[in-house]
Design goal:
4 helices, DNA Primase, Chain A, single chain, four-stranded antiparallel beta sheet, 4 strands, 125 residues, binds zinc ion, alpha+beta
Length: 125
């Protein structure tokens, strides 16, 4: 068995936020079409209940705020997916990708960024 790293240990938050911040999907929030409310990030669903519905075999005991489960984006027999219960971030250690709740929802639904965010907020597209 290969030991896998189960979540970013120490500087959680910062490196992740920088990486996410560099993605082009951010910054396009208020362009073209229906706007997202200014406080949309604070209105996203609770990560735990969100992921619970979409991730198979999601663990019950968080480790450092992270739970492991089966990644829905690849044929996963090893619970390669880590999701964070406070900020909603996710990482697939099998190499699918990592991101935040919205990027997970985009990938899960195939929706573009704003439509995915609006759906998460329960708004009509
Ligand atoms: Zn995966």
């Amino acid at each position: 068995m290969i030991q896998k790293r189960r979540g970013p240990g120490g500087n959680r938050g910062h490196a992740r936020a920088d990486r996410l911040g560099s993605r082009q999907v951010y910054g396009k929030i208020s362009q073209n079409g229906a706007r997202l409310p200014d406080d949309w990030r604070s209105r996203l669903p609770d990560p735990k209940s969100y992921y619970r519905k979409r991730v198979a075999k999601l663990g019950k005991t968080p480790h450092d705020g992270w739970l492991q489960g089966h990644c829905p984006f690849h044929e996963d027999r090893n619970a390669s997916l880590s999701v964070n219960l406070s900020h909603g971030g996710w990482t697939c250690f099998a190499g699918c990708d990592s991101g935040d709740l919205v990027s997970f929802h985009m990938r899960y639904t195939g929706l573009p960024f704003k439509a995915a965010a609006r759906e998460l907020l329960g708004l009509r597209a």
